[in-house]
Amino acid sequence: MHVPKRQIFRESALQHYIRNREKDVLLRILPVPMAVFLWVLLSIFLMAGLFAWNVRIPTYTNGAGIVQESTGGNSIAVVFLPVGPSTTVQVGESVQIQIGAGGPQIQGFITEVEPDIMSPDSTRSHFQLAGENASLVTQPSLIVLARFRTPVSAKMYAGSSLSAQIEVGSQRILSQLPWIGQLIGN
User: Fold this and answer.
1) So what's the pLDDT on residue 127?
2) pLDDT tens per residue across span 129-178
3) For strand 75-82 and strand 94-99, is the pairing parallel, antiparallel, or unpaired?
4) Which CA distances in Å does 36 have to 30, 51, 144, 178?
5) Cβ distance 75 to 158 under 8 Å?
6) Which residues contact residue 148 at a Cβ distance below 8 angstroms, ignoring those fewer than 6 apart?
7) Taking the CB of residue 50, how many other CB atoms lie within 10 A of it?
């Protein structure tokens, strides 16, 4: 006698079981809110990196100098810039000048750049620097003449020492970070 083979499971249950086994199972390591938070954090870091890559900050060169009387009773600033790779200045560039140690800060602009570099001795004799002002020039210098944007009394300030900052370029914010500045070049 032949006994028909009988199935233990129903056909629909087998189909359901096979479909579930074919589905992809995603491994859930992090809860969904934590994953969203990490993606947002990553995007913030990427935006900050793009900002730091694109934004440039100005670079300055500093120099000392004196206030001299020019024609017409006005005064000019004679700035002695130390010679170096960053001393490429041009007529018309902006200058921030402070007269004396605690004197006024005045904006100015470059009116003339001497083509030749002068030695300390020739600079002292050419501009008649004596006393404290003679110590302003200790190395070969590039001579820059600047006019003040607001009038400065020549009688009051002639012969006074000054310090000047001239913007000579710009660099990326990212280049200020150690190691990264060396990789991307300053």
Assistant:
1) 82
2) 888 878 788 888 889 999 888 887 777 878 888 899 988 888 888 777 77
3) unpaired
4) 10, 23, 57, 31
5) yes
6) 74, 75, 76, 77, 97, 106, 107, 108
7) 10
Gap between the Cα atoms of 154 and 107, Å rounded: 16
Which tokens in the block code for residue 179? Answer: 């190691």
Q: Is residue 93 packed enough to be buried (19+ CB in 10 Å), middle (13-18) or exposed (0-12)?
A: middle
Tokens of residue 76, six digits = 């000019």
**Which residues are bridge partners to 58 per DSSP?**
170
d(CA 66, CA 152): 13
pTM (2 d.p.): 0.65
The three-class DSSP label of residue 1 is coil
Residue 63: Cβ-neighbour burial (10 angstroms; 0-12, 13-18, 19+): buried
* Domains observed in the chain: 58-171 (2.40.30.170)
- State the residue for tokens 């004596």: 130
Residue 162's Cβ-count burial label (10 Å; 0-12, 13-18, 19+) is: buried
Instruction: At 4, list the tokens.
Output: 């028909």
Q: Given CA atoms 100, 101, 104, 110 in this order, what sign does their dihedral have?
A: positive
